[in-house]
């Protein structure tokens, strides 16, 4: 094992041996090179002759560039063309941490890591897999989960999903979650929570959130060592009162010394910037200090250096410009209102059209982009195809439910979507 990895491991072991035990074999070997090309280039920064950089320069020393690329982007060449650091640019890392504190007031002054920038959330989740998953590890996750977790986790890391049932009646099946968490002691447990959830569009109520946190704490008190991954892709898109509006990271970040909380989030959905590919990984654990977090950040950045090298500079720069814009908050609020009004239309339609329940019933939803309906005596795939061919309507079918992205449909078309669904079901049932 490289000496630099050993150094990081020693710090982690001294600070919290549980975190060290949670690391995968690959995570234990990971490090960010302190003495390679990058650090030699950093030391040569500002010198008259700098022959270290893996870029090309114009004769005035600025980044070499094509005019046809610069003309469309109103940023200085350094903010567009240069490589960003593997950790992410320092300004956006600090800004995102400030956002996390602002958006989650209960975090108060709990110590968390500086976010490390990833190539959006999918990549962030994959990096977490590298850091913490060993072959045959089990990942506790709800039976209604984002389909891409199969490709991100199950196949590359050889882990197994240990499914609990998402819902009981109109809320979460807390007992089912509890059974997975409180069944054994002194073992490594990986938990993946995603709220607002894809596909269901559900976020826990305040009571449910408290129950989840209580269960995680009890599991930790039984000696289990837990890594809890919060996939917060849709953070902030909560439309009802009495719903837990902060990230569960807020409570988990200092819940227990056996619980490492990992927040994976980003600009993708929070800033409506899907193609920018900017996400963040942030760590929190009770007693975590700057040394422990710096070691985890270095390992994370090392894995990023070894996969994509670094995330897009231009995307980070454009986001930073937006965050400094006085209209940012107001513009974001307006987009939220648009999504909320579409959500409200869906709620109203289901309230008004009780006849729909003959063929489909909504699963609980209160947030995010989506909602799901469960079909009654109608085949999901047949329905999807019929909607495409005869109703010019596209929906997602999987695991016996239909997922509807109300986020992507103008308000005026939502009633037609449900009418089409109803009519197509009727046709198939007859
Ligand atoms: C639950 C969930 N997590 C993560 C992602 C991935 O987001 P990104 O586009 O930032 O990789 C998605 C995207 O659809 C998602 O639904």
Query: What ligands can be seen in this structure?
Result: pyridoxal-5'-phosphate
Q: Give the beta-strand count.
A: 13
CATH architecture of the largest domain: 3-Layer(aba) Sandwich
- The count of domains is 2
Strand fraction band? 5-15%
Strand order of the largest sheet: 1-9-8-7-6-2-3
Question: Whole-Å distance between the termini?
Answer: 66 Å
What is the CATH level 1 assignment of the largest domain?
Answer: Alpha Beta
Q: Number of helical runs?
A: 18
Mean pLDDT: 96
CATH superfamily of the largest domain: Type I PLP-dependent aspartate aminotransferase-like (Major domain)
Main sheet record? 7 strands, mixed
Query: What is the approximate shape?
Result: globular
Question: What can you tell me about this protein's structure?
Answer:
The structure is a single chain. The chain has 430 residues and is α/β, with parallel strands linked by helices. The protein has two domains: 3-32 and 86-324, Aspartate Aminotransferase, domain 2 (3-Layer(aba) Sandwich), CATH 3.40.640.10; 329-429, Alpha-Beta Complex (Aspartate Aminotransferase, domain 1). Helix content is 44%, strand content 14%. The protein contains 18 helices and 13 strands. It has helices at 3-15, 17-22, 25-29, 37-43, 67-70, 77-81, 90-103, 120-132, 149-157, 174-181, 206-221, 249-252, 267-270, 290-305, 313-324, 328-352, 380-391, 414-429, and strands at residues 116-118, 138-142, 160-164, 167-168, 171-172, 188-194, 225-231, 259-266, 279-284, 360-362, 370-375, 396-398, 401-405. Strands 1-9-8-7-6-2-3 form a seven-stranded mixed β-sheet, sandwiched between helices. Helix 8 (120-132) packs across helix 14 and helix 10 (174-181) packs parallel to helix 11. The longest helix is centred in the last third of the chain and has 25 residues, at 328-352. It is globular, with a radius of gyration of 23 Å. The N and C termini lie far apart (66 Å). The mean pLDDT is 96. The site of pyridoxal-5'-phosphate has 12 residues, from helix 8.
């Amino acid at each position: 094992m490289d000496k630099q990895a050993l150094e990081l491991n020693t710090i982690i072991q001294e600070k919290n041996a549980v975190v060290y035990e949670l690391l995968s074999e690959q995570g234990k070997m990971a490090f960010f090179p302190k003495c390679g090309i990058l650090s030699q280039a950093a030391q040569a920064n500002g010198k008259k002759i700098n022959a270290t950089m893996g870029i090309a320069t114009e004769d005035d020393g600025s980044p070499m560039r094509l005019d046809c690329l610069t003309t469309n982007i109103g940023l200085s060449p350094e903010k567009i063309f240069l490589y960003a650091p593997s950790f992410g640019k320092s300004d956006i890392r600090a800004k995102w941490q400030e956002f996390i504190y602002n958006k989650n007031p209960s975090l108060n002054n709990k110590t968390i890591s500086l976010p490390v920038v990833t190539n959006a959330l999918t990549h962030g989740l994959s990096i977490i897999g590298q850091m913490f998953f060993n072959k045959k590890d089990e990942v506790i996750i709800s039976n209604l989960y984002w389909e891409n977790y199969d490709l991100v986790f199950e196949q590359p890391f050889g882990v197994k999903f240990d499914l609990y049932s998402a819902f009981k009646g109109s809320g979460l099946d807390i007992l089912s979650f509890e059974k997975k968490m409180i069944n054994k002691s002194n073992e490594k447990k990986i938990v993946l929570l995603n709220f607002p959830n894809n596909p269901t569009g559900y976020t826990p109520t305040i009571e449910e959130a408290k129950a989840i946190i209580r269960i995680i704490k009890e599991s930790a008190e039984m000696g289990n060592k837990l890594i809890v991954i919060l996939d917060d892709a849709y953070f902030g898109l909560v439309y009802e009162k009495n719903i837990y509006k902060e990230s569960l990271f807020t409570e988990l970040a200092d819940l227990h010394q056996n619980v490492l909380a990992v927040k994976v989030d980003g600009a993708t959905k929070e800033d409506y910037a899907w193609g920018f590919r900017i996400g963040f990984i942030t760590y929190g654990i009770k007693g975590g200090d700057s040394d422990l977090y710096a070691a985890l950040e270095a390992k994370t950045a090392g894995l990023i250096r070894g996969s994509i090298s670094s995330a897009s500079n231009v995307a980070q720069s454009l986001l930073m410009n937006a965050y400094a814009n006085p209209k940012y908050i107001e513009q974001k609020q307006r987009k939220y209102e648009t999504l909320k009004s579409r959500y409200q239309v869906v709620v109203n339609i289901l309230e008004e059209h009780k006849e729909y329940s003959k063929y489909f019933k909504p699963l609980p939803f209160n947030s995010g982009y989506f909602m799901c309906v469960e079909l009654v005596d109608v085949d999901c795939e047949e329905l999807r195809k019929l909607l495409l061919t005869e109703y010019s309507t596209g929906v997602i079918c999987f695991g016996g439910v239909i997922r509807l992205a109300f986020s992507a449909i103008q308000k005026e078309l939502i009633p037609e979507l449900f009418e089409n669904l109803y009519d197509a079901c009727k046709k198939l049932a007859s």
